[in-house]
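User: Reviewer 2 asked us to show a designed sequence for the structure in our supplementary figure. I'm pasting the structure tokens here. Could you produce the per-position amino acids so we can include them in the response letter?
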């Protein structure tokens, strides 16, 4: 009898469920999911897969081990519209062992847990908070980490005008160094690259807009890797929740292809579920003059016409 660990996503958030086994029935699963989501069983849609599709849970006496649901799967819970006539899709075929495809051959892998995100505050320093979390396994509660990282980045940039030229930075070197130390400014690729080099660790950013992973420090042969989730404007750290209990893990060997494939699946899942921010529609506020702006283009135009470069999320 195998203990099941399922990641359940719903409107109220997400959590790991570890109270079912391979011998649990579909009815037991539906009862549990209905209780977690406060959605009546007759109006509960359960989706899974990439892209997500509705599971056939009508055979309530069947065991999970024969249902096409596997330990480690992600289940997305939705409520059926009252007027909607339910349509039963074909049942999911049992999924074979996941595979890693290489240039030479095909190797199987079994992920030891579920990759989860830890939500950090959207305070314009989410990148620095997230990097501290994956390096230390906790959120900085002193408020000192982000300013320290900003100063470190400014000092690094100021010492190398050739590498960090105006063409690279988008502004004169000195202006950038002043700008990045303002706690209202956001970090991005330049800052991630510098912090990757400073800590000697690869930083893999899971981009949910494009369903890709951007790797910083990939060419440095670092021995370890951490993961961040980026939705277009906000960064959150990722961690591994072990299926069999134990402590979460945030730092992984770079040769660990199992976790990397898990992160790739997470990127695809997040994009298919539209878990990203359309940078052309989100609202910003200019910190300098309090003008509200819609989207990245307006912010860029405002900065060009006024010289104001500090924006906050609304």
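Assistant: Here is a per-position design you can include in the supplement:
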């Amino acid at each position: 009898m195998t203990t099941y660990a399922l990641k359940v996503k719903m409107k109220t958030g997400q959590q790991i469920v570890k109270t079912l086994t391979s011998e649990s029935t579909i009815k037991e699963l539906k009862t549990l999911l209905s209780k977690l989501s406060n959605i009546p069983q007759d109006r509960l849609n359960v989706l899974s897969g990439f892209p997500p599709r509705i599971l056939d849970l009508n055979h309530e006496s069947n065991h999970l081990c024969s249902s096409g649901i596997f330990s480690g799967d992600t289940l997305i819970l939705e409520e059926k519209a009252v007027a909607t006539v339910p349509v039963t899709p074909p049942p999911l075929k049992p999924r074979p062992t996941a595979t890693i495809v290489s240039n030479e051959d095909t190797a199987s892998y079994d992920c030891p847990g579920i990759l989860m995100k830890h939500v950090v505050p959207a305070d314009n320093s989410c990148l620095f908070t997230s990097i501290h979390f994956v390096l230390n396994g906790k959120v900085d509660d002193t408020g000192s980490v982000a300013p320290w990282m900003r100063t470190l980045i400014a000092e690094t940039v100021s010492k190398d005008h050739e590498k960090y030229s105006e063409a690279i930075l988008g502004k004169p070197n000195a202006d950038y160094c002043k700008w990045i130390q303002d706690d209202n400014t956001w970090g991005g690729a330049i800052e991630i690259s510098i912090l990757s080099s400073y800590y000697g660790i690869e930083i893999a950013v899971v981009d949910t807009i494009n369903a890709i992973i951007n790797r910083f420090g990939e060419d440095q042969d670092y021995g370890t890797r951490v993961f961040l989730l980026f939705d277009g404007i906000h960064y959150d750290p990722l961690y591994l929740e072990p299926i069999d209990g134990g402590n979460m893990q945030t730092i992984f060997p770079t040769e660990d292809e199992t976790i990397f494939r898990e992160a790739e699946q997470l990127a695809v899942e997040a994009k298919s579920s539209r878990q990203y921010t359309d940078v052309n529609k989100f609202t910003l506020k200019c910190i300098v003059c309090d003008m509200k702006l819609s989207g990245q283009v307006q912010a860029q135009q405002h900065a060009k016409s006024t010289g104001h470069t500090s924006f906050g999320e609304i």
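For the response letter, you might also mention the following. The radius of gyration is 22 Å. The mean pLDDT is 78.
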